[in-house]
Write a structure and sequence with these properties.
The protein is an alpha+beta fold. The chain has a single domain, classed as Ribosomal Protein S8, Chain: A, domain 1 (2-Layer Sandwich), CATH 3.30.1370. It has 4 helices and 6 strands. The protein has a 4-stranded mixed β-sheet. The chain has a two-stranded antiparallel ribbon with strand order 1-2. It is elongated, with a radius of gyration of 21 Å.
């Protein structure tokens, strides 16, 4: 039984137990990542709103740490595979564990990067306008959910709550490889699933009634 790069060895009995690393979720027929649209209104919002975004960051700069960590993790998995083929199972198990442990750091770096990207895009916008350009699908949905919960809370507690509709810019996807905006499609599924009334203003803009 061979060890592949997308597999991890467990610490116990490394020569016997191999655990597959989750692969990237497959695209549904609509072109939306199925696992990424599974964001419920009841889920915890895990973004830290206190991330310092005083300096301007490009998309590439914000995602740079994530890219670096992913490359490091990949290198550990490759080394683990080579060690396993050489029957050095203990070393292979150690290397694969190190690679696996980087996943939490990658997740944290992505959260920070997404907050930089979102806040820099929206720093001059009112609370009734959101620009989701530069965000991954799940990140975009969580920011929308966060804003909806915030506006509902303000509406409930304030004597003079924001009026009108929440305008959400998703982009039309013209610059994507498929020509389809995954964020837009996922957002529409999310809004329908949670019974929100909305309308399309343009190919890349939705207007939501809070």
């Amino acid at each position: 039984m061979g060890f592949k790069e997308n597999q991890l060895l467990t610490n116990s009995e490394p020569h016997r137990k191999i655990v597959s690393v989750p692969k990237k979720p497959a695209l549904s027929e609509s072109g939306v990542l199925d696992s990424f649209i599974d964001v419920e209104m009841e889920d915890d919002v895990f973004y830290n709103d206190q991330v310092n975004v005083d300096r301007q960051l490009s998309y590439e700069e914000a995602r740079k740490e994530v890219k670096t960590l992913c490359e490091i993790r990949k290198s550990y998995f490759k080394k683990a595979a080579l060690e396993y083929r050489s029957k050095r199972y203990g070393v292979a198990a150690y290397l694969s564990d190190v690679g696996h442990n980087l996943s939490d750091k990658i997740k944290e770096a992505n959260i920070i990067a997404s907050r930089y990207i979102f806040n820099n895009r929206n720093k001059n916008n009112s609370c009734m306008l959101m620009d989701l350009h530069g965000l991954h699908v799940k990140e975009a949905l969580l920011f929308v959910k966060e804003r909806i919960l915030f506006l509902k809370n303000v509406k409930r507690r304030s004597e003079d709550p924001p009026k009108g509709f929440l305008k959400i810019i998703t982009g039309s996807g013209r610059h994507s490889s498929t020509g389809i905006s995954k964020v837009k499609k996922a957002l529409e599924i999310f809004l329908k699933k949670n019974n929100f009334s909305y309308r399309k203003l343009t190919d890349g803009t939705l207007e939501l009634k809070i």
